[in-house]
């Protein structure tokens, strides 16, 4: 029995590693379908593999890092431009692996909860994992491009900014969605499904119009995002934000809608500003709403328990009879 368990554990770890590598590679191929160019360097506005990597570490632990490294290597080998750069490829794999691990360590240090039910968890994911730890991958990857002569030294900071924001967007948009799917609850009631259907239809109409209209109408998405967060908390706001980010990225890479006739740098700034503010709004607003509702439920439960305790005490100690009046009971 013990021997079987010892053999089963390496098999499970190997299977987890292969699944993580496959998910990382698949997310990388999806991200590479939409690219932008800044100062001659090609990058993705949203790099989903960083979100997959951070989510895998949060759900499985440090043993997820080999799968992340293998997935990063497979993505790099699939690009012909990096096929002959052994040193560069090794450095990029290291940077793309170390950055999510550092994000996991930072989140673990502040006792991060994967259900994102607290406002502090949203802040930690934004500032520690996304904006903080992803500076490592951007610095290593862009630095290697400069060292190998693929990028001029004067173009370091614009490309670094684009690379960093793309990695950070992957954590802000993809990681919460994976964590949400991991803790998905049973189906909601029929009445809630009707409201969810209304939100889905509204998103299907408003988001394409806002991202494809020649008039800058991206602000129309925010009321829809707030509605989804108020009624369905994290699942509703994250799905809405993911859909809007994908549609905006497609429009930006096709030079359509509010991104028409803009320079590559202007497209990058406008798109990343929109994706970033929308992801922050969805994540932090949902965390605040969830935290307030959990607090209210805790207070209601405590009040209910207090009432039950008082009823129990009252039942065990009957009300004493009043003392007889003077002269009553005598004679």
TrEMBL record:
* Pfam families reported for this sequence: MASE1
Q: What is its main location?
A: membrane
User: Residue ranges of the MASE1 domain?
Assistant: 18-293
Extract the PROSITE patterns matched here: PROKAR_LIPOPROTEIN (PS51257)
Which keywords annotate this record?
A: Cell membrane, Membrane, Transmembrane, Transmembrane helix
Q: Does the keyword Cell membrane apply?
A: yes
Subcellular compartments: Cell membrane
Membrane topology is: Multi-pass membrane protein
**A GO term from the CC aspect:** plasma membrane
Query: InterPro entries under this entry?
Result: MASE1
Transmembrane stretches, start-end:
12-32, 52-77, 89-110, 122-147, 159-184, 196-222, 273-290
What is this protein identified as? MASE1 domain-containing protein
This protein's species is: Streptomyces populi
